[in-house]
Amino acid sequence: MSTHNNHRPEDDYDFLFKIVLIGDSGVGKSNLLSRFTRNEFNLESKSTIGVEFATKSIEKDNMVIKAQIWDTAGQERYRAITSAYYRGAVGALLVYDIAKRNTYDNVSRWLKELRDHADPNIVIMLVGNKKDLRHMRQVRTEEAKEFCIENNCFFIETSALADSNVTEAFENILKEIHSLIIKKRNMLQDPSNPSGQQFKGQGQEIVNLNQENNTVHDENKRCC
Ligand SMILES: Nc1nc2c(ncn2[C@@H]2O[C@H](COP(=O)(O)OP(=O)(O)OP(=O)(O)O)[C@@H](O)[C@H]2O)c(=O)[nH]1
Ligand SMILES: [Mg+2]
To answer: Of 221, 213, 217, whose CA–CA distance to 86 is shortest?
Structure first.
């Protein structure tokens, strides 16, 4: 079957970003993923075992950004080998439950895990999930916002149950990553920048934020 020239094939994309979901067990990582990618929510979902992932594309500036979102268990004993999970990730959604204080207290531990295993340039968004549980709130919005200002991350509160801010959380992080890549590209293409000659990213790109780690995946898909 032939494809019309003016229509892009369904799975075509300009950028592929790997995003990881992290945070304590039960905060709603898997439901955020299923809400975003399939518009599904499960009140009785089981703890994730191993690693699952799903993809979804969004558009920005006439470009298709495909997100490959990885989800693993918050519970240590079910977690997949950490370094493999974080390898190549350009964004992380660090999720806590606004109604469970200890899941917020553990955010610093998750940040440390990112520092130890992920790319230093990874874009982090702190996500306070279950904002529908207003009467049970144990973490103030302002407190989490201030934490993010100090720790250089983005912040949003969501409800996978009520389908509130879920799309925004994923779209915002993807757009931030995209802006960062474009900024980096412009910098590298600047003739006054000596490393500009090394930049070859055109066509489809599997993006890796680490400049030293450029891996060519195939002839059309380059890192930048
Ligand atoms: N009220 C409310 N419940 C939610 C929300 N999101 C998830 N839940 C519930 O919280 C429980 C845990 O959700 P999961 O998505 O399985 O949590 P998880 O973070 O993937 O947990 P692990 O896989 O063990 O790390 C389930 O009972 C969900 O139905 C939300 O926004 N509001
Ligand atoms: Mg899960």
So the answer is: 213
